[in-house]
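Blackboard transcription, Thursday session:
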Amino acid sequence: MVEQRKGFTSGLVFVFLIVALVIFAFPFFILIINSFKSNGEILQSPFSLPSSFSFDQFASAIDKMNFLVTFKNSLLITVLSTAFILLFSGMAAYYIVRVKTKFNNTLFATLVAAMIIPFQSLMIPLINIYGAKLGWIDTAPMILLIALYIGFGSSLSVFIFHGFIKSIPFELEEAASIDGCSPKQIFFRIIFPVLMPTSVTIGILNVMWIWNDYLLPSLVLNKDNLYTLPIQMKVFNGTYMNNWELLIPAILLTILPILVFYLIGQRMIIEGITQGSVK
Amino acid sequence: MSEQRCRSLIPFIYIKQGVMIMRGKNSGLKSLGNQVFFTGPTLLFFCITLLIPFIYGLYLSFTNMTSPISPMEFAGLESYRTAFQDTKFWSAMWLTIKFVAATIILVNLIGFVLAYLVTSGMKGQNFFRAAFFTPNLIGGLVLGYIWQFIFVQSMPEIGQKLGIEILRLGWLGDEQLAFWALVIVTIWQSSGYLMIIFIAGLVSVPGDIIEASTLDGASTLRRLWSVVLPMMVPSFVVTVFLTLKNSFMVYDLNLSLTNGGPFDTTKMVSMHVVQKGLIESNYSVGQAQAIVLFVIVAIITGLQVYFSKKMEVEA
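(Written on the board underneath:)
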């Protein structure tokens, strides 16, 4: 009898999960079936299957949103920012853990405390300093944006690295030190490689944030050949309001790269998120 | 100096990991040169993006600056007075607090239920986990456009076909329903993320405690309430903090799904600050409101972490 009840419960769980899955997948399903349809077909019924699979709307959206250039901008900004965040935060976290001076403790506390500063309270000063005063928004927007991402990313990244470096046995470094490795060599040849799984975690968190970020890049990148995918999507939506046959393929194209990234690294991503939240 | 040896040492170190060779300080690490080399870059970028702008922003809120080129004259608490008298700011703040409350409860509840179900040991649970997490990869801005299509084009059609009145209405055109539309989209996006955090917590609940409670004859619900949930407090500290912070800061979704409409009734505080400062060119007042927002968020998150840490039980 107990067995029977167990079977009943797990059946119920399964049914519930399937229902949840349908609800979660519904928006994706709607987008995909409508991406092949013309405006007339979409307005007639968003649920009908497309009468023919034409990629014309996709081609048109790729062309109109300057997809390749926009994609390249997003990729460049995300990859470079993340790489620098990992390198610099790893270095800083290592030094803070191993050299416990008052200065380093204060630095760490400040970095952690800064996590609760809302972007909105930095936005106006940032524009004022780097736009009106220094003019970097006009002269070097890409470099400025990446520099700002490195700054904004350092808080959380140093915090997570800090938690993991604490668990690396000190003997590793002692052995290397006796063998004549300089502190820099120790970090780059021993500590950084050991930190690889943590770097993956932190890298994923940063990629997800930077790739999808809208407000900061929209304030810094003013020329349309520098737009990232979210900015382009905003502009595109303004230009083609309610023109769903163009908007839906554009939406799909915008989310496709990150979904492919997820599909490839799914296991690592889920694992990484788990690790990142526990520490 | 001995780069070659250093490299050759690595595999050796991996094997001998944990074997103590000599006790002592990592000599040579603590020096001004190393301090600059290791912490310098982070310190520099932290200063130019967070520290300096934050202090400069505080100063700015005590001036009467209106646009990027206008002169900065010290005006004391003038901007704060204007900021506090701005009724639209407070209505946006109140709406944001309602949004925060609704999302904290619903996103955590649904995230926890999902986590509980996908750790019950059934087949295919990894697939479900991966699927529920997927919406989290989509940024707030694009999310809004996706759901606009659903609320504007798809739901009325379903309502019509199935005869469900509530679905037939144009949700984004109605003050109350547009608010709930924002909540629903937030649930769709974030509950998968919280699910992952809850899974980590659920997996670490010791099996013997569960077993003991089962032997004592506790029902499933009773076990969930008296055994599992108290052990999950550390997870809830993290998830409530995350939802609190994200919901207070919501901007992208607000902009793309409702754009504050209808008639500014769903304009939340972030959007209000952005518009006040940048679009209405009211730098000082916008900045003062941003500082007020910061103080409120800092107090609430501080209290949340403090009180929930107190609730944690020793495993």
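Lecturer's comment: Chain B touches chain A through 108 residues (CB under 8 Å).
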